[in-house]
Amino acid sequence: MKVRKLTSATITDLLDSLNLAPNTRHHHYAILSAALTFAEKRGLVAENVARHADRPSLQVDHDRPAPTFEEAGRIFAAAAEKDRRLAVLLWLAAAAGCRRGELCALRRSHVDLEAGTLRVAESVSDTGRDRLTIKTTKTRRSREFALDPLSVGILAQHFADQEALAAEAGVELAADPYLFSEAMDGSVYWRPDRVSGFFRRLRQGLGLEHVRMHDLRHFSATLLAVMAKVDPVTAARRLGHDPAMLMGRYAHGVNAEDRAAAVSIGALLAPIGAVFRPDEKGPG
């Protein structure tokens, strides 16, 4: 059908006929509407008729509960038993609220152990047909925030373990290695689907099939907003949510509120962070 002959009814019927999940239909609508807006601005069509079509609703599971402390503790303990590198990755998902792709893209240069900060600037993205690429974060901007002392210690041990494994394999670490790498020299990032596969097997073994890896971000948000009572702007900044107008003034650097938030997170997580003590399990 020619674009000029499209009507709102045509678009509504098309979307209704798609045998797809509600959120996927919503994304189809958003792409079609954006294309028609582009065409309208350039005089290629009289108007964007998608505006008058029935827009598929976007379903957001606001009521999905975050993992409990007991569940998070079991996850970290089981992960540390299987592979401490992935245990550290899951820890950062909870303690720092990082997304899966952001965690896979982390490099040594993104961590300042002395200052106790973490910079999230990139994300590993699946571009289809089994192809991956490094791109900007979901909100297209980097963020830097404070780490609690416990997380700093966990990362320091992780660096030491990474160096020990490279030496054992007889290779030198890359100039700026990935924190979580497919290669002993840290030159190749971990694939996000590998991380997801590990987490699925881990939760199944624990009988926690209802917990998704992304729920560790919800766990972090719960710690920030509910238990630590961190103000919404600081919490949103740490989690990398799409910034509102108030977020603009907090776009760069680490402020006192963020440092206090990190300390609060560390204090709350300390009881279940014992599995990362260096004397309990070596690298591997």
Report what the structure shows.
It is a single chain. The protein is mainly alpha-helical. The chain has two domains: 50 residues, no CATH class; 208 residues, Intergrase catalytic core (hpI Integrase, Chain A). The chain is built from ten helices and five strands; from the N terminus they run αααααβββββααααα. It has a three-stranded antiparallel sheet with strand order 1-2-5. It has a two-stranded antiparallel ribbon with strand order 3-4. A hairpin with a 2-residue loop joins strand 3 and strand 4. Helix 4 packs antiparallel against helix 6. The longest helix is centred in the middle third of the chain and has 21 residues. It is elongated, with a radius of gyration of 22 Å. 32% of the residues are buried.
In short:
By secondary structure, the chain is mainly alpha-helical. The protein is 46% helix and 8% strand. It has two domains: 3-52, no CATH class; 69-276, hpI Integrase, Chain A, CATH 1.10.443.
Look up the CATH topology of the largest domain. hpI Integrase, Chain A
Q: Structural class of the secondary structure composition?
A: mainly alpha
Biggest pleated sheet: 3 strands, antiparallel
Question: β content, as a range?
Answer: 5-15%
Give the oligomer, counting copies of the same chain as homo and different chains as hetero. Answer: single chain
Strand line-up in the sheet with most strands = 1-2-5
The CATH class label of the largest domain is Mainly Alpha
Find the CATH superfamily of the largest domain.
Answer: Intergrase catalytic core
Overall mean confidence score, pLDDT: 80
Percent of residues in helices: 40-55%
Number of domains: 2
Return the CATH architecture of the largest domain: Orthogonal Bundle
Measured between the Cα atoms of the first and last residue, the distance is 58 Å
One letter per element, helices H and strands E, the order comes to HHHHHEEEEEHHHHH
- Number of helical regions: 10
